[in-house]
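Input for the complex:
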Amino acid sequence: MKKHLTVALDAMGGDLGPDMVIPGAALSAIRHPNVRFLLVGDQSRIAPLLERHPHLKERAEIRHSDVFVTMDAKPSQALRQGRGKSSMWLAIEAVRSGEADTAVSAGNTGALMAMARFVLKTMPGISRPAIAAIWPTLRSESVVLDVGATIGADATQLVEFAVMGEAMARCLFGLEKPTVGLLNVGVEEIKGVEQVKEAGRILRDASLPLEYIGFVEGDDIGKGTADVVVTEGFTGNIALKTAEGTAKQLASYLKQSLMRSWLSKLGALLASGAFAALRDRMDPRKHNGGVFLGLNGVVVKSHGGTDALGFATAIDVALDMVRNDLVSKIKTDVETMNALIKPVTAPDKQPEISL
Amino acid sequence: MKKHLTVALDAMGGDLGPDMVIPGAALSAIRHPNVRFLLVGDQSRIAPLLERHPHLKERAEIRHSDVFVTMDAKPSQALRQGRGKSSMWLAIEAVRSGEADTAVSAGNTGALMAMARFVLKTMPGISRPAIAAIWPTLRSESVVLDVGATIGADATQLVEFAVMGEAMARCLFGLEKPTVGLLNVGVEEIKGVEQVKEAGRILRDASLPLEYIGFVEGDDIGKGTADVVVTEGFTGNIALKTAEGTAKQLASYLKQSLMRSWLSKLGALLASGAFAALRDRMDPRKHNGGVFLGLNGVVVKSHGGTDALGFATAIDVALDMVRNDLVSKIKTDVETMNALIKPVTAPDKQPEISL
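Predicted:
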């Protein structure tokens, strides 16, 4: 592995753009003293911010672009308008050309996935990329995918997600044999989850080199029952956002409860260390970074509303994936999978978009 | 409305059967002094328990059955073995015959739905029943459906769920115009949710007498953005269980944080009133009761693992639905709906089971 990794950052992504991305990169530059940064976006906004962070400046290069993908642009629109010139496109293109080892963007998820598919292409043997989230659990953390790259997945695609998520869990958690579960409902005899049942049969019978533990339910995610939880993108996205909503709801309940009397306020003051630890553990900035799996390159999506600390976490995740050779691991595993399972589905077409 | 309502209880349902159901009924009998109880199940187990609750005994009747549906029976198996004689079947049958006004069971969900569909039949104009959960939110509570009656739903079925859920919200919350949202993902341009988009178009354009507010995302459920959240059963079930799992996870984090030092333990002691209030607010026993909608009668499913207090809550919900005339409200609304929207789907067939 080369000594100096380079991370390409879409400096214009996220709710605050460079005002969040550049301080995030500055934080990351402290954490990763040998990493170089390619900052793609409006030079006139990036350069003055860079002046405040000399340690970042000496390891950063600005690539000017004055085309930005807006947070509410439709993927097809973003592709049409941002192809070849937007900050998002150029950050991904730097990965394709080998100039950068990974790209991170806090921009529009749909646009980022559409561009990443277009530029980096889907890996051979994979019919469809997925977005994997790192989900904090009672045991530690789990990988949950797909959380929104595509809606729906057939049995083979679910098996591909299992293989890719398992490789990611090895990179991320350093586990040799992460456990893999398929998200399902608790009812045995129901229509419509044929693809989930069929994926379960394949994972059980195909002697893939992964530790399949069977079906898991929604409450198993937070328990950490499996290191990798596999589902299709619609359900995965709704599960992720429902959990985020529930966490906010309970934090708000807790705050309200503690404000109800002077005695409980005093108690809260004495226990403030405990609450700080709790806040820290629940801090969404510590679990930021959706990893795009199944492409010829590592692209990580940061939450759009995060701050510098959260963005630095997303860069951590991206670098972790590169250092642990995620793409090669997936390639090897996909070859094994395809040797064991007859290829069933043709690759998805690239998005049907006239450019 | 007649003066004395009767609730039929499947005394054998739930993890503990009569040991949980009879004390639950006893609690309910205090709350509802004019309600009568039909206790269906093993006489030799119910009678001694009833002796301990004279106030319940004088308003209760035991209907003996020595056939019980096990918690892990498949619905088809349960129907074959429990038809016409199991405690679950007889409790539902009492609703059909008019002997009881509603039935409550903490038994196997799939079996209960299969039997309820078989005995009570789906309402005219409704193609498929749903299970609605009462979901605590930051604003108050919302109705979320379907949380697991069936997997998948087409646009018309989603609209039916919206109409039924809205009627339930009027009964439950006393709102004149509850708001209705369709659960979707945040990505605009995606495949596969055609049925959700189409349902949205119908709800927006068909001038139904309900307050449709558009798409909502997973985190909107806990916020209480809509009084009624509509989705199909697979996603709804996973969202519900994911939220339950997240709540348990955070409660466990909180406990761990407070145990970390003597200072935080002291703080927790002083704030114990606040934590009691929080526990009370999060208490799943206070939000117990999945309402079966779209049948000619009210059946409520209690959590299998609940205790007497939780079971009494499920009985509260069932009585609320009956007192507010849920079935008639839905019937009226479904007629209005079908007058405004051309009927698109044929009713689902009854479960294909040879008995």
